[in-house]
Amino acid sequence: MAVDDKDLQLLVQSVVDYAIFMLDPSGRIISWNAGARRIKGYTAEEVIGSHFSIFYPPEDVASGKPDRELETAIAEGRLEDEGWRVRKDGSRFWANVVITALFDASGRLRGFGKVTRDMTERRVVDQALRESEERFRLLVQSVVDYAIFMLDPSGRIISWNAGARRIKGYTAEEVIGSHFSIFYPPEDVASGKPDRELETAIAEGRLEDEGWRVRKDGSRFWANVVITALFDASGRLRGFGKVTRDMTERRTAERTLDERGRLLAHLVQAQELERRRISWDVHDDTIQSMVAVGMRLQLLANRLPPEHAASVARLDEAVGTAIHRLRGLTFRLTPPGLDGEGLIDAIGGYLDQVASGAGLTFTVTHDLVREPPPEAGITIFRILQEALTNVRKHARAKSVALSLVSVDHGVLVRVADDGVGLARPVDLLTRRDHFGLLEMRERAETAGGWWSIRGTQGQGVTVEFWVPALPYGESE
């Protein structure tokens, strides 16, 4: 059934949510519906014959906006605009306006159809939402105790806040576009840990982890990390939210009260006591007995005929070599200076002994805030001792550089030689059949620290480790 003009007129006149009215070609109002009266406040008698510019703020009238809108509607067939409009009582409201140019069959302009909707409430809501989002953005950007940033679905960084810059050391310009794996230690990257964490976050919605992370300058810090997978309304992965907090200080302080730490101190002390006992037994018993054997062999050689004396002399020489090795063993077990002179002096004394027999030159630099506690000092010394033994036996180096620096309530130690380097990948060198490297790693990790080794063939080797160095029961 066709709808006649009277029905259409009734429909338009009855609509109250939209102001629907017509303008003549000059912009004067020629019709008015119930919605126009409700929204704009004028009755039909008050407004018909007036120019539609009475609904525009003075500044828009002064700038010629009403006439420009009609010109645009004529040129393009229609115009849509949002902006402030004015009611009869002078109050303003935010309007969505559509002006349609009306042409007859011959193409002559007959006027304009104008539909206006009051969008003030929606604009208030939208503006409140924008302001809320802006406040939230400012909050996130301003937080300095947490690194808060976003990753795209492939794990590349797309936002960066002040806390991320403070904790990780990168500016936004330096880091945006990079893969977030740059914050992980090399051994974690090699094992695929960053990608596994994203996979877990996708599967479970979020992931929380604590572990070592790396700053721009290469230093490590203990981090609490939460990764949240971000999905849109259709369920499509849009990326990840990542929140990181530097927990190094808290972890170190907690460790001072940790019973495991106390047990570690007792273990280190027990190991050193056992080393001393073995050293004393070897020195006071085995070596003395062998010295006596050597003296008797010398006396026997003097009494024997020359043809037998030479054999006894060789036997005496073998005993002397064994005595020399045993004395070296007692020195390694209890090097002088470790008990009373402090870590640096103990290292210096040990290097004097090593250098004299190995043809090596050593440089030692240190910037220690204070002397580490005994168990930390012993751990550092023993790892250094093993590292230097490896240099002496395998590196064919001419010089070794040692550095000890106070970092994050601990001691960061670096041992770098100029020897032949590593002919095999690091992961192969740290397996069970390389006991020296394994012992260094286990000592550092048992103490709550970390250890690493790097080097390429012909370019020397660098051993680096960090050990916490707060006395138990103390925090900073």
Model description:
- The protein is built from 17 helices and 13 strands.
- The chain folds into 4 domains: 5-119, PAS domain (Beta-Lactamase, 2-Layer Sandwich); 143-246, PAS domain (Beta-Lactamase, 2-Layer Sandwich), CATH 3.30.450; 255-334; 340-476, Histidine kinase-like ATPase, C-terminal domain (Heat Shock Protein 90), CATH 3.30.565.
- 25% of the residues are buried.
- Helix 12 (259-303) packs across helix 15 (374-395) and helix 15 (374-395) packs antiparallel against helix 17 (435-446).
- With 476 residues, the chain is an alpha+beta fold.
Give the topology string: H per helix, E per strand. Answer: HEHHHHEEEHEHHHHEEEHHHHEHEEHHEE
The average pLDDT is 83
Count of discrete alpha- or pi-helical segments spanning 4 or more residues:
17
Helical proportion, percent range:
40-55%
SSE class: alpha+beta
Major beta sheet, strand line-up: 9-10-11-13-12
Radius of gyration: 42 Å
User: Architecture of the largest domain, according to CATH?
Assistant: 2-Layer Sandwich
Share of β-strand residues: 15-25%
- In the CATH scheme, the class of the largest domain would be Alpha Beta
Q: How many structural units, i.e. domains?
A: 4
What are the segments in which pLDDT stays under 50 over at least 5 consecutive residues? none
CATH homologous superfamily of the largest domain, by name?
Answer: Histidine kinase-like ATPase, C-terminal domain
Large-scale geometry: rod-shaped
Number of strands: 13
Largest sheet at a glance? 5 strands, mixed
Q: How far is it from the N-terminal to the C-terminal residue, by CA?
A: 87 Å
Named CATH topology of the largest domain: Heat Shock Protein 90
